[in-house]
């Protein structure tokens, strides 16, 4: 999986695709670091439109991202979560600590 | 190493090689070449084909065999008419050849080329050695962690007739954890946990859970308290981004209560005696290790049962196990095999069924499954209680109270309303009881008596709660809500608890005194005789009947807000 980034004004969108698991670890981290380092971006959206599978290590990566984004005083939302992704996020009750749209 | 039986050629080639900056060793036949090679281990061999004593190809075969995994390039220096011998030699392992008379420009180029290949070869060998070292170290680490896990998970305690379990790691180490223990009051606690990923790091994630689980269960803490501590522990030791999905189940056969708390694990299925699904306890909490304990809702789902049934808890690795056509095993398959099997071991049927489904494929995530039973020995338990309440375990008449001697030790505790709101009294006292030699083997009895006396004093003595509420539909929930509310409002409540070790013949008798500052009750009328059957409500009577069954004497004092009981530990055999 290679995440792509779209920047529209102060919003940075990380678009993921395929299987989001530990194998995506490095690319995901690199993309996120570049977004966090960008001072123009105030809001980060992680887009799950094209993700068909998500495992617990992906949840761990999201928690790490949340921590880093909060430290950089930006906001974070998980968007376009459907089917499997939504189900996994629901079981983990991530709605309690993440904005999910 | 240069090998040739013609002195002139030997000299010529070795001088040339030295001029290129290498150092040259010389040998005059195959046999010598072998000896020098064994002694000096040269990097490359330039060798004549036809030589006395031992030919070049023969020596080459020998050197290659002895060098083993180390690559020693062997280049033949051949004359005209030696092509057949050369072909043979190359076939048997030689690396290259150069024609006589030697063209030094070509020899130089060839030596350089071999130099490059040798460097590459060494690098690969070093790397594969490092890799092998890593592998060995990783294996050793796994061995240690596996041992650690086995010790901490304590499979002995998992051998409990009330439940079956199955744990099958995807790698040599499991990131799923199953643990079970019983409280002093015999409530069964089962922990099912799933750390992120699998293998070593996942296993390390779940390890911090074991210690609070076992030690707090043994002291009789509720699962809420245990979860609070486990979450704190996981947060303390794990880095950000690591968390543990957990379900904690408590089955209390005495009160017929199941408590379930599910955080991030698949829905737990409660089945009736006919194995139809009665209720589903879905995850409603964040996994442990993400937010501080005080921001978690640690109140478990409570289920009150009268009939027997099953609790089925599993990790996602089971229902998401995929076969070669990429279809998942699924909850439906799991439930139908559980429902249709008539085998005594439900787990074995599931194992066989999953194996058949996977048809040789490996499951990609750790698989764990627990099937626990409840309401099993309800009748048995009831019978036991009835018999015991009719006929005390130790006949009071056999006890000569004149022989009760002085006090060996005494432990007193006074709590006011403030402390009653937050001190977890009984587990706290149990850590003392555990240390008393005459009581260590009867902790369970002491726990039950203390709990009943304490609950009576607080619920009925101070909070004036009516046990009859419990018998209504949803009664237990109403009762607990009322209890929480009244406890919060309680102003001048006070409870005194004394434990005393009294000398009795050559053993020790335990005396427990519990006093509350409530108005008491008319115990004379309630217990008109020593007959426990006269106690009105079954739910209410159970506590007192239990105490009577366990102890040798129960005595209400004054207004009925004070009670003394004597307990004689059975001999420790």
UniProtKB/TrEMBL annotation, chain A:
<feature type="domain" description="STAS">
    <location>
        <begin position="1"/>
        <end position="101"/>
    </location>
</feature>
<dbReference type="GO" id="GO:0043856">
    <property type="term" value="F:anti-sigma factor antagonist activity"/>
</dbReference>
<dbReference type="Pfam" id="PF01740">
    <property type="entry name" value="STAS"/>
</dbReference>
<protein>
    <recommendedName>
        <fullName>Anti-sigma factor antagonist</fullName>
    </recommendedName>
</protein>
<dbReference type="InterPro" id="IPR002645">
    <property type="entry name" value="STAS_dom"/>
</dbReference>
<dbReference type="InterPro" id="IPR003658">
    <property type="entry name" value="Anti-sigma_ant"/>
</dbReference>
<dbReference type="InterPro" id="IPR036513">
    <property type="entry name" value="STAS_dom_sf"/>
</dbReference>
<comment type="similarity">
    <text>Belongs to the anti-sigma-factor antagonist family.</text>
</comment>
